Amino acid sequence: MKARDRGFKEATRIEEARRIFYEALQTVSLPSEMIPVQGSLNRILAEDVGADASVPAFEKSAMDGYAVVAEDTFGSSQTNPSLLKLVGESKIGELPMKTLRKGETIAIATGAPVPQGADAVVMVENTKRLDTGDVEMYTAAAPGENISHIGEDVKQGTVVLERGRKLKPPDLGLLVALGRETVSVVRRPKVAILSTGNEVSESGPVTSGRIVDVNRPVLMAMVEECGGVPVDLGIAKDDAEEISKKLKRGLASADLVLVTAGTSVGKGDLVPDVINALGKPGMLVHGIAMRPSLPTGLAVVNGKPIVSLPGLPVSAMIAFSTFVQPLILRMLGTEQDPQPKIRARATKRIVGVPGFRTFIRVLVREKEGKLFVEPLRAPGSGILTTLTRANGMVVVPENVEGYDEGAEVEIQLFRPVERGEGAGRP
Amino acid sequence: MKARDRGFKEATRIEEARRIFYEALQTVSLPSEMIPVQGSLNRILAEDVGADASVPAFEKSAMDGYAVVAEDTFGSSQTNPSLLKLVGESKIGELPMKTLRKGETIAIATGAPVPQGADAVVMVENTKRLDTGDVEMYTAAAPGENISHIGEDVKQGTVVLERGRKLKPPDLGLLVALGRETVSVVRRPKVAILSTGNEVSESGPVTSGRIVDVNRPVLMAMVEECGGVPVDLGIAKDDAEEISKKLKRGLASADLVLVTAGTSVGKGDLVPDVINALGKPGMLVHGIAMRPSLPTGLAVVNGKPIVSLPGLPVSAMIAFSTFVQPLILRMLGTEQDPQPKIRARATKRIVGVPGFRTFIRVLVREKEGKLFVEPLRAPGSGILTTLTRANGMVVVPENVEGYDEGAEVEIQLFRPVERGEGAGRP
């Protein structure tokens, strides 16, 4: 990293970079689309869902039993039952015709509408039907007992699910309960991904002298995880014309374009120069005060965002999480899900780079009920296995030098804590 | 709930119920299947992935520049460059023919193989190519500088990803880097879902007297979230023959069968009786020491698991998280992802049911930088909106009465914390 970074005289802080980027982007929201409720899991709601009708839409019985005028049962007990006249039955899916009067009862099933006049349901196991057609009630029912009231769950006219919400299983249940078969969600953003570099080739068997492009498969998976749709632009050689042609294709077909590598001291500013030639305002920020991922660039071309990611896979991934994921959430108009965080004791000093936000891959382990965190040695941010071995990330802020051995630090946990003595795979 | 629960004289504790269930199930693991790496995100690895070759597979340059014998550059500086004879070029994808001798250098691109004899690369910007064909080196290179060594990332023969791992973007990158195009993953479990009840009907517009079946859409989404494939068995009336026929279909087509409702005091043990008639050992546990979801049942029929879930949607969801999700993870041979948890101060007393594990839906809010948690009133576990309004769950253990107002409690957070004064939607 050190050498590649040398070209950057100034680095912009992460928040400042985002501010400049979002200001230039102005509107980034996506159109909506109507889809079936059953296929809407994890999609982002594009409408405020209001209740056209109350849920329940009518008074219904919560039990199998007998609808009564509660007063008729007051004082009833096993030894002193009250006797009511059976005058009908309330069935599921049919509104009862009959109005219940004092001294009368109606058989009722769970979910069936409560007849007018009734204000309680006595459970069937607390009753006895006599041959005479009368029913004995062995308990007193309080007014309202065993009745689900109109609007108890949802009141007609209220907004129950707000625009921007990520739809989860209970939300699907509520939509269905409201009688909805389709729902308006935000269209998934299309994210085009281009790798650059003479040194990388398409995936496939590794042969001598061949380096497989890791960035595209990784970034495509990351886009998917954020709720986007990846568009594969392939690999461009370190050639301005080829990069330009492929980026144009990306801008035409996607909502957001990612391009990896093509900017380092050795290669010059190939990608930034190409982006600047594509349209205004071009590169806004190039060089971010973060380690790794310093060579990240943020650009806008004719209203569309382009993020120029570093070529080393770990740097590309960390830059993605820092800039691309928040941008995708912004386009979708939603918030990030809560992230698992834990605290653990550092087994080694964790060192940051002063003035830079430092992202350190770590391994969190439990030993004898205590949590320990070990920074993983990373000889270079090309080393993929530091990320596959890591189960968490420690972020050292710009104004913190690091954390001493033995200090308790906060970790973003993305895999389960390792149990026992295992040192993790090499 | 109270009335429906009355039928259960004894309730089995959650861990004991799981133990009995898993013991009767014996083997629950699923077969594996080979799929393309690019489609393997979030699938569970069914093989230990070893490295057939080291990564990098050869010494390669980390920079554009010149391969040298480091010793030749010792003492070099801007004012006192060393002069080396250019004898060739190392190209990407070609193994260099030439062996470098002292006094010689070879032009080399990032990613190109380092020739025999060379042990460092001098970056191009610290060199000057003379017209004579010689190259001036303005810095001293340490042995190993700017060279990625064989096996630096992965050593041949080591296991880098273990069976049972959920594949995440960096794992896909590592697989690709190893030259893998396909990967062996555990087949997704098929989970068949049957709703029962005369009172519920298929989803669609709500009309008077019609109650939409909420459980199937919700449970299907939950199965999907756990990495399973839902199989819809529809709705069965409260009729033993119909339930039996549909459960048989489920057992024939799926790895796990879920059935909701059909067990309460009013309806008798319709579903449990049907399950017991289907095969041995039948219902193993019926009635769990938890609130809500007491009427949950765990069964095994001819080696296949059946989980009988309560009919009320919230109860069904909590029982699913408690029993079905862990079972699916067990079938997949994997661990649960780390879950976001936070601590907040209770704004009201949070009450458990002694002897039962109590699951309380809560709303967590931030006010002036502090976190507060409020239990949501739940007049019944049929009330879906308590789950859609909630952003978290507090679990009160069996031996705890509850938490006082003002106490700090731990919350499983499943949605972002609410900011500001908003009281949440009704």
Please write out the topology:
Two copies of one chain form a homodimer.
Chain A: H1 2-5, H2 14-25, E1 32-36, E2 49-50, E3 60-61, E4 65-68, E5 82-90, E6 104-108, E7 120-123, E8 127-129, E9 134-137, E10 147-148, E11 159-161, H3 169-177, E12 182-186, E13 190-196, E14 200-201, E15 211-212, H4 215-225, E16 229-236, H5 240-253, E17 256-260, H6 270-278, E18 281-286, E19 290-291, E20 297-301, E21 304-309, H7 313-332, E22 341-346, E23 350-351, E24 357-367, E25 370-375, H8 385-389, E26 392-396, E27 402-403, E28 408-413, E29 418-419
Parallel strand pairs in A: 5-6, 13-16, 13-17, 14-15, 17-21, 19-24, 22-25, 24-29
Antiparallel strand pairs in A: 1-12, 2-11, 3-10, 4-6, 4-7, 5-9, 8-9, 18-20, 20-21, 22-28, 23-27, 24-25, 24-26, 26-28
Helix pairs in contact in A: 4-7, 5-6
Brief write-up:
With 426 residues, the first copy, chain A, is α/β, with parallel strands linked by helices.
How would you describe this structure in keywords?
6-stranded mixed sheet; Molybdopterin biosynthesis moea protein, domain 2; disordered N terminus; homodimer; Molybdenum Cofactor Biosythetic Enzyme, Chain A; alpha/beta; Molybdopterin biosynthesis moeA protein, domain 3; 4 domains
- CATH top level assignment of the largest domain in chain A: Alpha Beta
Spatial sequence of strands, sheet with the most strands of chain A: 7-4-6-5-9-8
Q: Which chains share the greatest interface? A: A-B, 103 and 103 residues
Write down the overall mean pLDDT of chain A.
90
State the helical fraction of chain A.
10-25%
State the assembly state of the protein chains.
homodimer
